[in-house]
């Protein structure tokens, strides 16, 4: 499998605090990579670095290299809007915009210059189908997205991310605010989406990592302790600290 992103010697500081220490990871395309580890170990920081969301935080310093395909994402001429279009993000808490379901999905394509109604209709339908929520909302596209259930809102947010045709979806604990049924729908959806997209997901739920991911990265205090095939890591972890974490001895 080809690697869609390669991370070399990545370090990140928030002011004086180092949150990531010499991280080296290759992310294979069209697969699911899970990031696990105890609270504060740097999972979200790492995830947000992949599409330069940390640029928005004051006082961040980053060294090392992150490549998306051939593109050095920190190069001065990198078009950050284009990068974020190709590497979309889904957050922990569903965050639909306070507007109609249709407009939530059409928002991104419109900002990228698509105005044609038929084209927007097509994007809205395809994105909602892609996020496995079309049948539930097709008769209420003009209704507010805020009237949907939490699980529906999260699939709407995934549809919104899909609408700008990304290659990678970054998901930061996308099911932690959801009930078990909505969670399993998102997990099924993630497994379907990896046929077309690459997914990197932060999760505190180890069973979730086992159920859906192909490879897992275990972080501890800013270090990447172990990274490899998920089944293998959970069956025979190489590092004692990984074993302690996945067997529930800490974290
Ligand atoms: N904006 C920020 N400014 C300063 N320090 C931060 C900021 N964001 C995160 N940190 C610090 O960086 C470290 C890593 O945080 P991060 O949120 O990446 O961890 P995490 O593994 O995702 O945690 P959790 O599982 O609780 O979400 C922590 O020590 C945290 O306090």
UniProtKB/TrEMBL annotation:
Keyword Flavoprotein on entry: no
Tagged with keyword Amino-acid biosynthesis: no
Keywords noted in UniProt: ATP-binding, Cell membrane, Membrane, Nucleotide-binding, Phosphate transport, Translocase, Transport
A Pfam family: ABC_tran
One MF annotation (Gene Ontology) recorded for this entry: ATP hydrolysis activity
Ranges where the ABC transporter domain occurs: 5-246
GO biological process, one term: phosphate ion transmembrane transport
Membrane association type: Peripheral membrane protein
InterPro entries: AAA+_ATPase, ABC_transporter-like_ATP-bd, ABC_transporter-like_CS, P-loop_NTPase, PstB-like
SUPFAM superfamilies: P-loop containing nucleoside triphosphate hydrolases
Localization: Cell inner membrane
Official protein name in the record: Phosphate ABC transporter ATP-binding protein
Species of origin: Butyribacter intestini
């Amino acid at each position: 499998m080809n690697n869609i992103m390669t991370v070399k010697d990545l370090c990140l500081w928030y002011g004086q605090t180092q949150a990531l220490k010499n991280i080296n990871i290759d992310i294979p395309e069209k697969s699911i990579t899970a990031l696990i580890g105890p609270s504060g170990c740097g999972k979200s920081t790492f995830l947000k670095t992949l599409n330069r969301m940390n640029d928005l935080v004051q006082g961040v310093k980053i060294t090392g290299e992150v490549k998306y395909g051939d593109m050095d994402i920190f190069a001065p001429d990198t078009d950050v809007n284009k990068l974020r279009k190709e590497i979309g993000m889904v957050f922990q808490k569903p965050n639909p915009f306070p507007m109609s379901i249709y407009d939530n999905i059409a928002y991104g394509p419109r900002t990228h210059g698509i105005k044609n109604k038929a084209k927007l209709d097509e994007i809205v339908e395809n994105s909602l189908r892609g996020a496995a929520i079309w049948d539930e909302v097709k008769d209420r596209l003009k209704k507010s997205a805020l009237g949907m259930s939490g699980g529906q809102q999260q699939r709407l947010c995934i549809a919104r991310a899909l609408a700008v045709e990304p290659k990678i979806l970054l998901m930061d604990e996308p099911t932690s605010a959801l009930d078990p049924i909505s969670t399993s729908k998102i997990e099924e959806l993630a497994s379907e989406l990896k046929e077309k997209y690459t997914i990197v997901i932060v999760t505190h739920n180890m069973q979730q990592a086992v159920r859906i991911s192909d490879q897992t990265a275990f972080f501890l205090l800013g270090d990447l302790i172990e990274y490899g095939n998920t089944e293998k890591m959970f069956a025979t972890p190489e590092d004692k600290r990984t074993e302690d974490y996945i067997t529930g001895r800490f974290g």
